[in-house]
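User: I'm curious whether this sequence folds into something compact or stays loose and floppy. Could you predict its structure so I can see for myself?
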Amino acid sequence: MITDQFNHLIEAIFAPLEGSVDAVTPAGILVLGLIIGLRHAMEADHVAAVSTIVTTSERKLSRAPLLGALWGLGHTATLFVAGLVVLLLAVSIPERVSGMMEFGVGVMLVFLGATVLTGFSAGKFLRGVFGQERHSHLHVHRDTGMVHSHDHDHHSDHRHGHKSLIVGMIHGMAGSGALMLAVLATIDSVPLGLAYIAIFGAGSIASMAGMSALIALPIAKAGRFKLDLVLKYAAAVVAIAIGIGLVYELGFVEQVFF
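Assistant: Here's the prediction. I'll summarize afterward.
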């Protein structure tokens, strides 16, 4: 599978760094957390998910690092909650739970790719069902002194990084995020464990922000030659392919739900 080959390549690059760290000392544990965090953001399914978000952003190059950082922030938030459970209750997250989360990531990737190909927006759909959030503004005509109000909505004027944040949260316990929690289970000190989560999160945020900028750069350049749409759809197809692969492998081969 292409994703496995890509992940193995990333792992091979970071393995020497991880192997050189003395994880016996508190400082070594924190350095290991940073390295794992940097590597974690580069996994194929993470890159594929963020690619679909970056390619649909109106200001791809300028917003890409922010979208990547928001992914890392959401990702860290989920791990922080799970990490607290591991530290305070001295339990470990079952491998089966991690597999279910990874299955959910596969479904999400298919959905993200499909929305890019079809132009479907869940946010617009929900606003259409429940109504637009409209704002009333007073308007004064200086020549006549007449005052009246008018309504408009801001949804067409700006976009938020909510999608990137939510995608990061869903990714939280999947993949090597589960590895981070496994390492966390071996740490006896709660403050040290929380510091480990924080530095892991910092590594994930920095790594994905940089990765998102790299993804956006060729897309922004391709816009000059009208090829950005091709790259946008290519990112969607890759995301769908990776998602279907995860769903098949975890749902039918490993049967994580049975």
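Summary: The chain has one domain: 2-253. Residues 248 and 254 are 9 Å apart (CA to CA).
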